[in-house]
Each structure stands twice: as structure tokens, then as C-alpha cells.
Amino acid sequence: MSGDYRSAGIVRPQRASFAEALPLRCGATLPAFELVYETYGTLNADRSNAILVCHALNASHHVAGVYADQPDNEGWWDNMVGPGKPVDTDRFFVVGVNNLGSCFGSTGPSSINPATSRPWGSDFPIITVEDWVDGQARLADHLGIDCFAAIMGGSLGGMQALCWAIRYPDRVRDALVIAAAPNLSAQNIAFNEVARSAILTDPEFHGGHFYAKGVKPVRGLRVARMIGHITYISDAQMEEKFGRQLREGIKYSFEPEFQIESYLRYQAEKFAEYYDANTYLRITKALDYFDPALATGGDLTRALAPAKCRFLVISFTTDWRFSPARAREIVKALVDNQRDASYAEIVAPHGHDAFLLDAPQYHAVVRIYLARAAERAGG
Amino acid sequence: MSGDYRSAGIVRPQRASFAEALPLRCGATLPAFELVYETYGTLNADRSNAILVCHALNASHHVAGVYADQPDNEGWWDNMVGPGKPVDTDRFFVVGVNNLGSCFGSTGPSSINPATSRPWGSDFPIITVEDWVDGQARLADHLGIDCFAAIMGGSLGGMQALCWAIRYPDRVRDALVIAAAPNLSAQNIAFNEVARSAILTDPEFHGGHFYAKGVKPVRGLRVARMIGHITYISDAQMEEKFGRQLREGIKYSFEPEFQIESYLRYQAEKFAEYYDANTYLRITKALDYFDPALATGGDLTRALAPAKCRFLVISFTTDWRFSPARAREIVKALVDNQRDASYAEIVAPHGHDAFLLDAPQYHAVVRIYLARAAERAGG
Fold it and tell me: Which residues, 6 or more positions from A184, have their beta carbon under 8 angstroms from its beta carbon?
């Protein structure tokens, strides 16, 4: 190990095809589907050192390293995953997978619907966290991984880790649930609904069948992204970074005048260029629906009872999207079930996005937790 | 006085025309303009008992009472203003005025531009809080009021009261600044910018000249209203009122499924029916620009030095739009100036909207404060 500056290096995405249809929560069945994934590190002989990294709203299978032809396109969790990093690929075999319904390569609304030979569009079913996890389990079968050393993720990715622990208790030894919540609050749902309304009412959405028209509902996507973006950053962080700074003085116009306005618009424009509106709609719905305690009448303790693995739950003090109080609900339910649960509340100014950043305490907690997990497994 | 249940009764809006042009902060000049207003109570002989009520984003001159032909259309602050109420119209002569640029009767973007004989639309100038206050001062002249007993408002209305105290220090004896801030934070501006983006990019906005097309950018207005609405309510209040309640079970569709979704959509649809998009754009800009300390290099104490009146500043514990910390900035600057400032931080669960509700402590504070003000004035 030579320190944190090493990278997973050149990586390349792989593709797994699944011929067997996947039954979905919504009642529909997805016919043959594909998942795009990447791996970092080496699977050991007894296939016991695999870590699955689940992604959140706008990320993908590209977790670490770079592509040979895109040396600047670092994976979204490159500071966390790599040789000598907290998720140490000298020790673990790490799998990044793109979820069903995404627009980054796995089967999704912009894929071709075999029934029509045209893009699925709005005919693509609504996917849930449980469906994602079921799809990921197929990938685990494909890779010959019976039981993951750990499954981890931040935000929506943390919800997937939690779902795995409940749904496949024998297939995961450690779950790392970071910047997540046991379900969305009314306010969380409200923000998602505004974002969806912006997309659904964009005239270029065309009921979800915009691909054939050669247009994209970029206006709606931009507004959706701006709303999301505000909720990812803490109020204090936004104040420190932008405050009331002006670009070039007050112009009395509707062009961006404050730095925060042009920052939001710029980020939104970039996002709308590469992201798919039907994917955005579905991922926010998956967030809204996630609620393991729905089946147990709201009792999270009973909902988590099937889980057998150890847990590391992490929250960030300034995260107002999924606040520490929400993470503590998960911890309480685990403790009530007498599960082996560690909890770290990281003091970080960045808000929800802190899970993507490299606050030293945060990375140290993950590093130590996984090192101990490896020792326990004799790795 | 017979208690809180009495109302200002049947009221009717009045209209004042001003022939003299109004110079605006943006550099433009508004030619002859009109202001719509209502009054409640009786102006005393020495014209010393007048209270001006300034409105916030989507309210108007209709502060209290009802119209003869609309017995259900109560004024927006009817619980606060009326005979025997905290702002007691048995004692005070209360003036509600609709601001310039509004869509409720005063000259605004939907009024006829005398230069073109068509609606102003996007040619209507961008108005600031200072411009509103200057317009209100003209109305005071028209009513023969040299000095208001008090000027009061919540949210953006509180900013107008603060602006009056600085801009016309000899024309106001008491300023009641409720649920306000000395300026908008980066996060506040960000939410406004998303709302404006939704309107500006609605294809039916037509660059602000939609009136002639017989359409309205209702999609954009709805999204804007939904965003605003979320910020008016506290997270906890939304959770208590809606939580994750479903309307009719999970349908796996993009129709509203959670109660919070249908509530937001319903409110947004109502709003988009009656509100004007050009007004929305301008009022959010007036909010963004408001910053008395801009002229003093960010020094709020120096900015408030010209104010001579007494102050009552009120904030609400769960207001995350304009938090108590922001109100305390105003109080600190007043204290630093050795002004007579009272401050009440009201424990209320409702968030920003608490200023419109009748939390007993809140109303008691206003009632006692104004009663003492009247005693001091020998009223």
C-alpha cells in the first residue's frame, strides 16, 4: 500500500445479459435485460472478498478509475475506492453496477423495447429499490458471488444496501448505509414531486415518447436538477461558497446576476445534456416508494428483523435531505433487533453531498470498519 | 370591544391615481400609476393613528373583512386586523395597499402601458422594495398621513417595514418586522431562481408578452408555486400533516399518490389560475435585491443607523426560509445603534407561514406592543 493517491487506474465497463425475465414490484415483468458494471481489484479464490457499491440518483457503474480514452472521467467514488483507499481494492474485489432503468448502459427507458423495436420511453416499467436489488443479485450469480463481504452506498445507494440486508440476509456480511433514511419524508417527496412536475409538463416530454421526436424535455430536466441540487448542499455551505456574490453587479434583469444563480443554471444545463428524463422520473419514484416498514405497519424494527449482517450507518451533521435523525431511526431499529450496528455522525459542512467528499473522519471510519471486516473474514 | 370574533366587516377596495411619475431604482421611471388600497377603522383628527400593512409575495390590499358580494373572501390577515384584534381597528386606522407590479389592481405588468395601449408584459420595469415603499409614501401623502403610528408586515412585508424605517425615518413611529430577514441567503435566492427558471422557460411565457396570445405560462407558475410552498412550511409540520399518507394505495404511476403530492398540485393549480407570471418574476427579484446593507459594504448596523422608530421584530422557531438567526441579525444591528428594539422568538410548528396564523403568543405580543404604542401616543 502506498497511500491514497493511487487510483484504480484504467478500467472498462462490462456488460452482463440476463435471459430470464425479472418480475417487478409494480406487477410488470422485465423481459431479458442487461446490466453494465465495472470491477476493481481481484476476486479471491473462495469468492469472499467482493464489495458491491450501489449508486444514487445520477451516478452509474463507473465508481473508480478512468477509461483509457477518457483520462479525466474519474469514477464518482474514486476518492473512496481504489488501492490503499478506504475501500481498498488491494484487498477487496469491488463491483460497481448501473441500475435498471438508468440511462448509462443498463436496460432502461431509452433502451430498445423488444416488443416494439423502439425505445421503451414511458412504457418502461416503474422500478423500485427492491427490483434493483433483485437485478444486482442476478449480477452476483453471474459473477459467482454467493455472499458479498459488504454492500455499500450513499443516499439512494445506502437504501439499496439496507434493502439487500433485509431481502437477501444470507448474501451480505456487512452493510454500509451512508447518508440514507429508512424512507422519504413528506418534504423529500414534495421536492421530488416538483421535479417530476417540471419534467412531465414540459411540452417536449411528449408523454415520455420524446426519443422519436428528436427532442428532449431539457427545460423540465434543468428545473428538476436545480431543485435537487439545492437539497444536496447545506444552507451554510451554499452561503459560504456563494453568499450574495454578484457576477457583475446588479443589472435589473432576469439573467443570472448572483453567482448562485449562474452556478445552478450551469450545473442544470450540463445535467440536462446527458441525463434521461424518463430515468429521472423513475429514480425519484423509487426513492418515494422505498419504505421497508410499509409491510410491517410502519414498524421499522420488525421490518429490519430479517437482516443478519453487521451494519455501519453514517450520517452527516448538515445533511438536511436525510438528516442524522433519520439515520438514527435505522440504528435504533437495528439495536432493538440486537444487531451488530456501528453508527458515525460525521461533522461536515457540506450537507447531503458530504457522502461523496473525503472528510478525513468519514473516510477513516469506512477504512477502519472494512479493515476489521476483512480481518474477521481472515482476508 | 367584544372579543376576537368581530370582523372588519364589509370593506371595499379604493383606488388612488398618481399623476407624477415615480423614479425607480432600476433607472426607469414609472409614468402615472395607480394603487389599490383598503382601509379599516377611522383616521383620528390629528391623523396620528394610521397603521400601514405591507403584503408579501402573493397577498394584496385585501387585509381584513370581506366584500359585500364575496362574503367568503376574507382578507389575508383577518385574524390579525379588526375590531378588538391585535391590530385593533377600534383604535387604529389600518391601511392595506397593493404594491406596484402586482396583479391585484395596482399598476403592474398586466396593466395597460400608456405608450403602447397594450399590457406592459415584460416591458414593465423591475421593481424593488424601495420602489414599493416610495409608492406607499405617495399613498400616505394622498391620505394626508405624515407619520404612521406603525408600519408592519410579515416576510417580504416585514422587509418593507424595515425599508420604511430607514428610508422615511420621520414618517413611522413603530416598525413591526415579522418573519423577515435583512436580505436573502444564497439558498433563498436559489429557490427563487428555480421558480423563475420554470416560468421563463415555459413556452407559453412568450418572453413575457403572453397576454396577447390568450395563454398563460401556467405550467411554469405551478412549478414555481410548488417550490415556494415547500419553503413556507416546516419539515416537521409537513410530516405531521401529510407524512407518507397515500391517497388510494400505491399505483406505480406518475399521478399523485401521496397526499403531499396532491396537496401541492392542487394548491399550485389554484395559484396559477389567478396569479400573473410577470408579477411572480418581479416579486422574487425584489426579494433577491433587498439588502439595505449593500450600500454600507455589508454593515447592517450602519445601514440601519438612519432609522429612528421603535421596532418589534418577531421570528418563528421552525421558519427555515427566514430563520430566527436572520431576524436576530436585524435585532443586533438595532441594538448596536441603541434603538428601542423588542424581539420575540415564537415557538410555533408551522414554519414561515406561522406569520399568517394565530399562535396565541404571537398575537399577544403584537396586541400588547401596539396597545402600548397607542398609550404612548395618548390614543
Answer: A192, A287, A288, A290, A291, B244
